[in-house]
Write a structure and sequence with these properties.
Helices cover 40% and strands 21% of the residues. It is an alpha/beta fold and 564 residues long. The strands form 4 sheets. A 5-stranded parallel β-sheet has the order 3-2-4-5-6, with helices on both faces. Strands 7-8-9-11-10 form a 5-stranded mixed β-sheet. The protein has a 5-stranded mixed barrel with strand order 13-14-15-17-16. Helix 1 (11-19) crosses helix 2 (24-32), helix 3 (57-69) crosses helix 8 (191-208) and helix 11 (260-268) packs across helix 14 (310-341). The two termini are 16 Å apart.
Length: 564
Amino acid sequence: MTRITTRPCPFREAEMLRQGGIHPVLARLFAARGLTDPKELSSELGALILPSGLLHIDRAAAFLADAIAANKRMVIVADYDCDGATACATALRGLRAMGATVDFIVPNRFEYGYGLTPEIVELTAREKNPDIIITVDNGIASIEGVAEASRRGIEVVVTDHHLPGERLPDARVIVNPNQPECGFPSKNLAGVGVVFYVLLALRAELRRRGVFDQSTQPKLDNLLDLVALGTVADVVKLDANNRILVAQGLKRMRAGRMHAGVAALFRVAGRQARSATPFDLGFALGPRLNAAGRLQDMSLGIECLVTDDEERAWALAQQLNEINIKRREIEAEMQDTALLHLDAFEPADSTTIAVFDESWHQGVIGIVASRLKEKFYRPTITFAPAGDGWIKGSGRSIAGFHLRDALDLVSKRAPSLIDKFGGHAMAAGLSIRAEAFDAFADAFETVGRSWLSEQQLERVIETDGPLEDAYYSTQFIELIDGIVWGQGFAPPVFCDEFRVVSQRILKERHLKLLLEKNGARYDAIWFGRTDALGDRARVAFRLDANEYNGTTRVQLMVEHAEAC
C-alpha cells in the first residue's frame, strides 16, 4: 500500500524566510525541511565549517607534512565504490600537488572484500613497498589490517566516515567525524569530504612551514567536482556543509572547469555538464563508476578520474559505460529471476524478503535488493554464491527498520548462523553458509514481525502540498534546479487534484497522461506504471522542463496517484 501525505510546514519559520527575501514557495519548502536561517542556504566556500573542528586533523597534517619533507612513499588504499574512487582521486591529486610521492591500490571486492584487511596490507607491501598507507572511505573497522601494517613497519593514516565499532584500530592518526569525541558539527561528510578536509589542513600546515604562501600554494577548489560527485553518489545527508561542497562542485561543472574524466562521464552518459544537477551525479555518473567496482576493478574508475589526457579519459569512460550496460543486463536478469522466486510472495503474510539464487552475481545483489525493496516495500536481502559453500548477502531497508541492528539480533539469537556482517540502518552485508539460508530467512522474518507494524510497511510519499498555478512555469523550475536537493533535503514533490483528460501506454511500460487543473493542461508521465487512472486523480508529482523540438514545456513526473 502507498499513501500520500503532506509534509508539515511551520508557518512562522516559512514567513521569516520569506521576509528575509526568499521566494514564497522556496520559503515554504525550506521551512518544511527544517531550515530556519537563510545563512544555512549559503553556497559560498567561506561558509564551510573549518577543518580544525575535526579531531586529530592537525596531527594528520603535521604527520603528512613531515612525510612529504622526508620523501616517504605513500600508498592510498581505496574503497571500491564511487565515494572511494573520488576520495582516492582527490587524495592522489591533492597530495601530488603538495609534493608527495603517492600511489594507490584498490581491493578487488571478490578476492579481498572490504577495507584494509591483512591480505591487502600484504599485497600493498609486496607490490608498492610503502612507508605509509592512507585509507580513504574505509579503515575505521580495520583493526587486524592496521596491526599487520604496524608489524611490517608501515604507518597508517585512517580517513573514513563510517561508524566505528567498539574498538578503534591502532593507527598513527584517525580522521573521522564519527569517531568518539570528535566535535565536528557535520557528521555527514562522505569519505571524499573527509579527504578534502585533510588536504585543506595539510596545505595550511605547509603554509605555516613556509613551503607555500598564498600565491604559490596549490588550488584545492579545483578538486570540488570530485568531492561533489562522491558526496552525492554516496547518498550521505546533504546538510548545510555538504550542500556547499556539492553546490561548488556543480558550479565548476556548469562552467566547464572540471577534470577530464568527469567531463568524459557526462558525455558518455549523454548529459549536459553545463546544466549539471545532483540527479546527474547520483543517477548518471555515479552508477558508471560504481559498475567497475561491482563487476571488474575500480582502478579503471580511479584512472579515469586522475588522468588529464582527454583522449584517455574518454576511452576509459567508454569502458566504464560498457561495464555499466553489462551491469544493467545482469541486474535485469537477476530481477526477473527474483520475481520468479517471489511469485507466491504475499506481502500481507511477510514483513521481510530474503532470496538466493545459484546463478546470481555478487557485485549486483545490492542493486537487486534495492529494486525489490522499492517494489514490495519490505526490508530485503539478496544472496549470491561466494564459493566453497558460502553465500554473500546484501540488504536494503525501509524507514524504521535498522538493518545492521536486525542482523546483530539474528546473530545473538542464533550465534552460529551468520559468519560476519556489517553496515548501517539502511544497508548491510553478511556471509552465511548456503545450507543455512532457510534458517536465516526464518530468523530474519522473526525480527521483522517483532519490529515492524502494519503502518511501517505502508509506503508513504511525502509531498509539499499544492503548487499555486502561477508556478507551473519553466522559470520556477529553473529556480528549483538552482538549489542542491538530495538525501536529507528532499527534492520538492507537489500534490494536487487533476482531471485526467487522456492517458495511453508508452513503450508498453509507462503511463503518458494529459492532466487538467483550473483550465490549464499539463503533460505528465508515470514511469513503470501501466494501470489506467480514473477520471479524477490526486497526483503527487515533481516538476520537469521537457525540451522537445526546440520548445521547453512543463511536464509533471508522477511519483504516485490515487483516485479521488
